[in-house]
Amino acid sequence: MFTVVFGAVRARTPQALMVLILAALPAAAAATAPWYGLAVGFRSAAAEVAAAPAVQRVLSVTRQDATNGDPRGALSTFDDTVRKQLPLGGATPVLGLKQPAVLVERGGASSGFAAAYREGFCSQVRLTGACPAGAGQAVISQDVAHRVPLAVGDEFEVRASAGGAPLRFRVVGFYQVADPSGPYWSNKLFGADGQLDPFFTTLDSFRDPVLGHPTLAADLEVPESLLRGDDGYDLNAALRDAVPRLNTAQIRVSNQTGPLLDAVRGDRLTILRDLLAALVQLLALGWFALGLAGRYTSRDRRADAGLLKLRGNTRFSMLRLALGQHLVPLLGAALAALPIGLLAGRLLAGRFPVRSEVWPALLLSGAAVAIVLLGGLAVLAAVDAVVLRLPVATLLRQFATRRRGWRTDVAELALVAVAVFAVYQARSGGPANGLGVVAPGLVAFAFALLLARLLRWSADRAGAVAVRQGRLRFGLTAVQVSRQPGTDRVFAVIVVAVAMFALTVGGFAAGRSERADRSEIELGATRVLTVRAATRTQFEYAVRNADPGGRQAMAVVVDLASNPPVLAVDSSRLAAVASWRPEYGSVTALPTATAARLPAALPPITGTGLTLRVASDRGVAAPLYAILQNEATGLAVQVAFRVSGRGEETVSARIAGCDTGPGCRLVRWQLVTPEGPDGAQVGGTVTIRSLAQQNPSAEILGTAQLTDTARWYTDFRGVALTVATGRGGLTMAYAQREGLDAPLPVPIVLAGPQPPDWGFDDPSSFRFGPNRTPVRVTGTASVLPVLGVTGVLVDLDATRRTAADAELGGTFQVWLAPHAPPSIVDGLRKAGLTVLAEDSTAARASRFAQQGHSITLPFGLFTVAVGLLLAAVLVAVAAAVEREPYLAQLRALRIQGLPRRAAEAAGSAGTAGLVVAGLIAGVAAAFLAGPVAVVVAPPFADGWRMIPPRAVLSDGPLALAALIALALLAVAAGLTVLPLIRRLRAGDPRGGAR
């Protein structure tokens, strides 16, 4: 039997080679999938881990315990317990202590002021002064130093409770957190927690009984390999085992890794589903093409089967012989597919799987190849089984009869029904639901089968008419297409291959565009720096100084804690720097409205003293405070004027901190309501007549400014506020705060619904000043940069002026234009800003490309390219198989007088027409399947969708896909038609007559 099989294969080498190629292509794609899937699974997990916030990469364990005067021993015991009960290879705990305490301030007031110790503290902060070296030494935050206030060398007392024993510390330095978004500071235990920032001291300070009952803490940064799940590691399972043991030891675990682990797991499942969906469509097309090739190459085997039937052989023995002839090329396909899959997986993924996954990848690759080839063998066996059922006379006939049975019609109707159901699932449950994944391919295939019937029918009718009318070139070509067995099936394969290639190329391009869109929306500019600054004023001043032209950099403050969230921008630079999109509305709406409402700036205060002319009828002496703000640093400068309260007078006061740089700005007055001898509050008014400075002399406030009603405002929701401007100046009574130079109501651009706490005609916000601030909506947007579909866009300088000396918080960002030079960043650093992080739209889009459906796009493109190769090979197979019979027919027609040009045209136009018709129909099928099956850009792993999805059938990608398909199919058709033309010319019975 083996001798017979090998002899048959050797005698029919071209046929075996065709089967080998058609089987090797899908087998190679199947072999690629495990290598690619495991490699990009690692890449995707690594990208998720890298992009996750630090809090999702850290496990925090705490226990409240008494130190008994030995804090070092207590920490050591705690550390040993944590390491034993929660073993995480490669994770080194960062140990610390925190003891709640109360700071006793001057006047008897108290504030929460916790004492803390952490390993490696001084290397994680920027220190002004010294690092604590002994018991009783402490460093405090810059914010605490400003609020309390305290200076280096000052001492302060804390108590563990309001009535507890005091413990004294000496300030040796100030600290600022170097990287608040890093893993070291991810534990909120060591934050302010709504009170003063904790002060940090040495471990020896906790020997004192006052600090004898702290909370012990250990923060473990989980190694990336464990978060990725390398070698099958399951962090959730490890925590489930460890938490009960830790609870027994009264240790509490704070686990914030859940969202990150879910994202990693979700990406792996998405990769698996996408690879299977791409492979299923390719295998269906590959097995269909292999069955069609088996039918084409069965002519010689049919004769063998007829002779064997005449000799009395059973159907099983004949089928075994036929399968033996298929088995040899299929084994050759397996040997070729395995190394091709390995190399293709490496090229597509850019790396091999991790070492521990190499053997699983190899085994899965072999299994995938075996499944593909066993399926191909089953398809070929089914084709041969149908042939072997034919009678001997039919088997021995040189030309097969064209017969179409009812089974074929039922199969096609079933396929159309499945396609309809898949479209229903795609449109109702989403393209990733059930059969919706393969809905585009099913729609294209059903459309191709319907067009194939129309093609055969129209070619048959048109060919007959053309021949009768003497148009031999077209007539013979049409007759060839209509009467050649399997032409309609080849046409269907071409249509499906072209349609899927066009849709996938379009999806690949749409995915890139959509990732760029999301990056633009989330960042707001091409490059974004996250920086640290002491105040909004210092921040804005530094950015404007680094880019005085206003074309390269813009100061931005993002406040996501607000409801709705707020994006404050230097709107005068918005059009030049931001990546503005139509969804944001008009780029000029905010700067125009802000400029229209902003009062003219007062002269800056650059002197060393101020002179105030004031009138008071209160009869009691009381201070009047002028609150200034340094325009470079944002620090507040308080100037106290002692007003006697008896008529008009001129008073002076010295100021410090305004005689350098741009000087200071007057931001508000603060009027203190005095008490009379009987303890009751004294009424009356204070009227400011003028304000001037000395050294150098200059008028700051004159009558025009003091009587300008648009310039002054009070606390809008306060009680008994009385402010008036008149010919005499600015008159105040009972007001606690009186501000100026704010553009009120503050213009804003609103996205999303109006906040529910806005009054009917009185919209206001708490986020633009120390109290409620009136706002006016000057524009609306469907989406805002950074904030998304809900939020408020406001001018940064307007909020700075409204807030006066109050700080509103938020994240400071510097948006950079695409071609901003490096000198801009250098200028920001020289101005005192610390760059904490940098991001760009290109970098963020690259990260998105490593997640979810995006990371599988290259494999999807690879599979449809293989499908297009299958169609090209099938075209070649069909042309090659019919070459000899058709050559004989054309030579016979030449003898009967057919011109050579007509014969050559008929010999080549049939295949060329099939390719062109299939290409056009494939593009049409793509246009049909795209909207019908809801084919859009691949969705993001986290479900992000703020703008309509990109269409996949844009002009550029569609034209590119059509050109590539045409070139490949044309090459395949040309290589198979040229031998026919050469042999027709070489054996021309009429001596080359035309």
Number of strands: 32
User: Which class of secondary structure composition applies to the elements?
Assistant: alpha+beta
Helix content: 40-55%
Rg is: 41 Å
The poorly predicted ranges are 716-721
Provide an overview of this structure:
47% of the residues lie in helices and 19% in strands. It is an alpha+beta fold and 994 residues long. It has 4 domains: 54-263, no CATH class; 439-520 and 849-994, no CATH class; 534-599 and 744-832, no CATH class; 609-740, no CATH class. The longest helix is centred in the first third of the chain and has 39 residues, at 13-51. The model is unreliable at 716-721 (pLDDT under 50).
Give the structure's gist in a few sentences.
With 994 residues, the protein is α+β, with helices and mostly antiparallel strands. The model is unreliable at 716-721 (pLDDT under 50).
Topology at a glance:
Elements: H1 2-11, H2 13-51, E1 58-64, H3 71-85, E2 94-99, E3 102-104, E4 110-112, E5 115-118, E6 125-129, E7 137-141, H4 142-147, E8 155-159, E9 166-177, E10 199-201, E11 215-221, H5 224-228, H6 235-248, E12 252-255, H7 258-296, H8 298-310, H9 315-349, H10 358-388, H11 392-396, H12 406-429, H13 439-468, H14 472-483, H15 487-523, E13 527-532, H16 536-546, E14 553-559, E15 566-569, H17 574-577, H18 589-597, E16 609-616, E17 622-630, E18 636-643, E19 647-654, E20 664-671, E21 686-694, E22 698-701, H19 703-706, E23 712-714, E24 722-726, E25 729-733, E26 738-740, E27 746-751, E28 764-765, E29 773-781, E30 791-795, H20 796-803, E31 811-816, H21 822-830, E32 834-840, H22 841-848, H23 857-881, H24 883-895, H25 900-932, H26 955-986
Parallel strand pairs: 5-10, 7-9, 15-30, 27-29
Antiparallel strand pairs: 1-11, 1-12, 2-5, 2-11, 3-4, 3-8, 6-9, 7-10, 8-9, 13-31, 13-32, 14-15, 14-31, 16-19, 16-21, 17-18, 17-20, 20-26, 21-22, 21-25, 23-26, 24-25, 27-30, 28-29
Helix pairs in contact: 1-9, 2-7, 2-9, 2-10, 2-23, 7-10, 7-15, 7-23, 9-10, 12-13, 13-14, 13-15, 13-25, 14-25, 15-22, 15-23, 15-25, 15-26, 16-21, 23-26, 24-25, 24-26, 25-26
